[in-house]
Amino acid sequence: MRASLIQIAVDPDEPVAERRARAARLVREERGAADLVVLPELWPVGAFAADLFAAESEPLHGPTYEAMAAAARDAEVWLHAGSFVEAAGGSLYNTSLVFSPDGELAASYRKIHRFGFDQGEAVLMAAGEDLVTVDLPRLTVGVGTCYDLRFPELFRGLVDAGAQAFVVPAGWPARRLGHWTLLARARAVENQAYVLACGTAGTHAGVEQAGHSLVVDPWGEVLAEAGPGEEVLRVVLDPSKPAEIREQFPALKDRLLGIAAPRRPHPSR
Asked: How many domains does the chain have?
């Protein structure tokens, strides 16, 4: 399976409509080069541009949905379209969209863990409630977003739901770049799953973005990593590898907390 992570730069001087069109064009350029394309978190507005969240919010089937559905269909790819600010029922959500190669919505995920410590996203957006997985050909993908990466229980839940890979779009700040790469590798190692972590580049709301999107394999090895600027990171995944690693090193079978572990017979005496 070929995957492309589009580490798009968020420039506050670029109008949202222009960035939306540019992102769609970048997705279309992956036609024939990728089976799965991933965009970052809140790329239409910027993850730290909290003062723009309400003004740039959209209904689920709004301009970003329509542009990304068309791009997925034209490129004939599975598209994790990153996330946008969704307006629904009087609340705002940080919502991710996943489209199939025919441009149909395969899944949506409202970010559960909101960042800000009683500021920004944490107070302006409502929390999602549902874990989300998507069945791609030969690979089941679990969906998380940015700050979710710090909460391993979410990814354990996705593993229990059948995930063999995680897609994590983010708007991660450069000053915590070390945490970004460390946590991506930790989630891969402890769950024996691929991690496709796609961040933004550029600076918005005065916050320099980390970039450095990366793909980690189920053994914790970094298969590819981007630099700090706008870049398309391409990698080939082996869909059989999570199952192989889990069979060769069956650590997940020894879980005792948060899951009903299978009873083992006592050794004969």
From this structure: 1
SS3 258: coil
Could you give the CA distance from residue 110 to residue 120 in angstroms, rounded to a whole number? 16
Rounded Cα gap, residues 76 and 102, in angstroms: 7
Closest CA to 204 of 57, 46, 13, 62: 46
Quick check: is 262 in a domain?
no
pTM of the model: 0.94
264 in a structural domain: no
- Extract the tokens encoding 188: 């891969």
d(C-alpha 122, C-alpha 22), whole Å: 29
What pLDDT band is residue 266 in, cutting at 50, 70 and 90? very low
| pLDDT (0 to 100) of residue 51 | 95
Q: What pLDDT digit, counting tens, does each position of 85-102 carry?
A: 999 999 999 999 999 999
Closest by CA position to 168, among listed 236, 160, 179, 59: 179
| DSSP string across 167-231 | EEE---BGGGHHHHHHHHHHHHHHHT-EEEEE--BSEETTEEB----EEE-TTS-EEEE--SSSE
Q: Per the domain annotation, does 267 fall within a domain?
A: no
- CATH number, domain containing residue 83: 3.60.110.10
pLDDT tens, residue by residue, 1-44: 999 999 999 999 999 999 999 999 999 999 999 999 999 999 99
The residues that are catalytic are: 41, 111, 146
What pLDDT digit, counting tens, does each position of 172-196 carry? 999 999 999 999 999 999 999 999 9
Is 229 a member of any domain? Answer: yes
Give dist(CA 269, CA 254) in Å, integer: 23
Query: What span, in angstroms and rounded, lies between the C-alpha atoms of 49 and 151?
Result: 23
Domain encompassing residue 149: 2-254
* Residue 183 to residue 158: CA distance in whole angstroms: 16
